[in-house]
Amino acid sequence: MNLQGIKKITLAATIILAAGLQGRNAMAASTTLLNVSYDPTRELYQSENIAFTQYWQKKSGQSVVINQSHGGSGKQARAVIDGLEADVVTLALAYDIDAIADSKLLDLNWQKRLSSNSTPYSSTIVFVVRKGNPKQIKNWDDLVKPGVSVITPNPKTSGGARWNYLAAWGYKQKQTGSAEQAKTFIKALYKNVPVLDTGARGSTLSFAQRGLGDVLIAWENEAHLIVKEFGSDKYEIISPAVSILAEPPVAVVDKNVAKHGTRKLAEAYLNFLYTPQAQDIIAQNYYRPRNPAALKKYSANFPHIKLFTLNEVFGNWRNAQKTHFQDGGVFDQIYAL
Amino acid sequence: MPIIQKAKSKPPVAKKRVSDPISIQILLIGLTLLFFIGFVFVPLGLIFSQAFQKGWSFYLDAISEPYAIEAVKLTLLTVAIVVPVNAVFGVAAAWAITKFNFKGKTALKSLLDLPFAVSPVIAGLIFVLLVGSRTPFGSWLGELGIKIIFSTPGIVIATIFVTFPFIARELIPLMEAQGRDEEEAALTLGAKGWQIFGKITLPNIRWGLLYGMILCGARSIGEFGAVSVVSGHIRGQTNTIPLHVEILYSEYNFTASFAVASLLVFLALLTVIVKSGMEKHFQKNSFHL
Amino acid sequence: MGYTVFYLSAIVIVPLSMIFFNTIPMGWEPFLNAVTAPRVLASYRLSFSTAFFAAVVDAFAGLLTAWVLVRYRFPGKGVLDALVDLPFALPTAVAGICFATLYSPIGWFGQILARWNLQIINTPTGIVIALIFIGFPFVVRTIQPVLEEMELEIEEAAQCLGATRWQTFRKILLPHLFPALLTGVTLAFARGIGEYGSVIFIAGNLPMKTEIAPLMIMSKLDQFDYAGASAVALVLLCISFSMLLLLNAVQEWQQKEYRS
């Protein structure tokens, strides 16, 4: 190893890098969309993207490549704020898109732009238990019983975990009408939690692969996926009588589509999600479709749960975030001694 | 800890005089093996048992899938840039620190170590804070159409940051142990700075340099935390091998994920094979030290 | 020299100073509140203590391994040597997943430990195990080159003069190896404090109990609280830096002692 050699390697590396960058730029010139999404939608958008590509090809004769990026919802929102040039964002909660709007990348009124609060699909929060339900977990109240070990991710770092928390809180507050009792309930619930993974998928793995806990609180779509992936002979889904209507919203990022000249395509992509074809795919992936026909067709997968909305109990996302999850909020208080 | 004095295969001296009780040798080797079993072999076994759970053909499919190949390419490209850049810097820094006396040397040395002490998460974060589009500098770059973050240059820069102390850190103790006598002697004999470096310093530090480069290479292959913050996670574009492993794992595609992870093990082994190859090469054309 | 300083400032100082600049707008009071919240303090304690124990274990294991690899010949040595670097090449997340799987109640090790009612996963012990793995190559790889270059003549001379092996080790070898050992251990320690990827899988992340400092930064970031995250990062950075400074100073002093 001498300096001559090092210089040669550096030169070679620079050339490779330059070539690589050029290749990438060339790719960007064809029609592409970047969809920045949260974790559990991987399978959903894989299917939706194939469907949309065909649909768009037929409609406009244009071939389109849709790139996907997945990760924790908050982390993804931050990446977009910091310069990840997403054309569309499809995140776990409205608060994360609000944060993007706050940094002036899209209109503050984004949620009014598409129907159903800009959420082409909804979901809810259910339980997954081991086969035979050995601890007899039927409803939220069973989760605070002594000896029941509950797996849920960390609400500070996971969007899904916030829905879990709000579902439990909302259940108790609606039942008793008292926020104080809801807080006591939440405190007892988190006493039974032995591990707070940073993301929803991390919790699933703790529960399913590492055999921790008696019950997993999860998105309904994740619950179905767990049963499918890990075996219906091992796990079953328990739907509580009452739960929250979880609405993961979608939006076009105005500033980025203006830069890429992809507004038309991006809007077509999001509108496509409301079409009967896309709604069918949504239902196949165990998200609750907005389209009544699709909902009816797959009704076996979606048992009747009494759903309350976030706004009913908490006003709006910014409020919920501030009261419960901000530093010093309720979630911090229940862990303080 | 007992002491054994034995020459190992240090080139070119290879006189063998084993003066340690064999029992101590066995004991120490045994202890080392025990540690390795618990911390290296069993986890490795786990990776491979998972990787081959569905058989060879599945394994081959998993690692030859286009996204996986893109990830391998990106990782190798990163290593090819990071290691030489850091090697040049490492030698320069170690040279400056050990061969000259100046004020603030200790501070400089500590600064060198800092990237280790910085959490990989922070390492990614600082580049986001520096060139992210929220910052004036970042938005200026954006207007010029230069993309650093969430594209290849960002990954390379973050990796350079995380791995850059390795080589210097490897060389400093070595060069300190060697002292400056030889260089000073050469200087008295009228050698030029560059000559001294090429003929005396470089041969003396080649082991350290080699180890440093291997470490730096290995670490850049495996870096996850920092890269994950600046990558943007776009499949086939800004996905390195570790990120690809994570994606597959998150998709409950465990077998494929461990299969790709096992590639990293092979890459690590490869670096060491290169090392021993170079050792042999040195032995053949050994400058007698 | 100029190159060193330039490169250092471009790659290290400028980016790191961003942490500092991001905390300034906070003001003093909120800054103090952010970095001295009980949860944050608990996380510092946890991160530093686990990293410390892991570094101590690594010191012994690393010295032993380097010694065996450099001085002995035995079958399979090449493989061991190769595998030392594994913790670097393996993404930290994979390492974390591996250990979490091994020590889970249904894992290979976890099953055995469960018989004695021992739980590793989701406890500080689990964090220490992950950190031992992460820091191990630092110690081995810093000692190894020094040991390789070490002249046997001194040892031989000592032995000729009638020193026992233990004496030779203590008086000749250890002082000679000490700078490298200290470097390795410091690096392992420093790395342990900041480690994130592998630890979150095995730690449990319960507030006040098993929540590491880097996780505090992450959870602040997820609230889009850049300033708060930078504040915690800054504190972590300052502690680490002063520690490195101290250790480097000790090392210099030790070396002077050794030379004279």
Structure commentary:
The complex is a heterotrimer of chains A (337), B (289) and C (260). With 337 residues, chain A is of the alpha/beta class. Chain A has 2 domains: 3-121 and 248-300, 3-Layer(aba) Sandwich (D-Maltodextrin-Binding Protein, domain 2), CATH 3.40.190.10; 122-246 and 305-335, Periplasmic binding protein-like II (D-Maltodextrin-Binding Protein, domain 2, 3-Layer(aba) Sandwich), CATH 3.40.190.10. Chain A contains 16 helices and 11 strands. In chain A, the strands form 2 sheets. In chain A, strands 4, 5, 6, 7, 8, 10 and 11 form a 7-stranded mixed beta sheet that branches. Chain A has a 4-stranded mixed beta sheet with strand order 2-1-3-9. Residues 1-29 of chain A have low confidence and may be disordered. Chain B folds into 2 domains: 1-51, no CATH class; 56-284, MetI-like fold (Orthogonal Bundle). Chain B is globular, with a radius of gyration of 23 Å. Chain B has helices at residues 22-51, 56-64, 66-99, 105-117, 120-131, 136-144, 152-163, 165-178, 181-188, 193-222, 225-231, 241-250, 254-284. Residues 1-18 of chain B have low confidence and may be disordered. In chain B, helix 7 (152-163) runs antiparallel to helix 11 and helix 10 runs antiparallel to helix 13. With 289 residues, chain B is mainly α. Chain B is 76% helix and 0% strand. Chain C is an all-alpha fold and 260 residues long. In chain C, helix 12 (213-221) packs antiparallel against helix 13 (226-259). Chain C starts with a helix and ends with a helix. Classes of the chains: A alpha/beta (337), B mainly alpha (289), C mainly alpha (260). Chain A binds chain C through residues 72, 74-75, 77-78, 81, 99, 154, 156-157, 193-198, 202, 205-206, 209-212, 321, 325-328, 332, 335-337, and chain C through 34, 37-39, 97, 100-101, 104-107, 121-122, 200-201, 204-208, 215, 218-225, 228.
